[in-house]
Amino acid sequence: MTPQVATQRTFCPTQLIEYKTARLTSQPPECSGGLFDYVFAGDGVYVHAARPELEVCFCVERATVRGLPPLLPVFDFRLPRIPESFVCSMIRDANVWAEQGLETLFHLCWSDLALMDDGWVGYEPEQARTAKSCRPFQDGGSHDRAIVEVHSHHSMAAKFSPQDDADETGFRLYAVIGRLPNAPEIRVRVGVYGYFWEIPASWVMDLPDGVRGCEIQEVVL
Ligand SMILES: [Zn+2]
Question: CATH top-level class for 84-213?
Answer without folding.
Answer: alpha beta
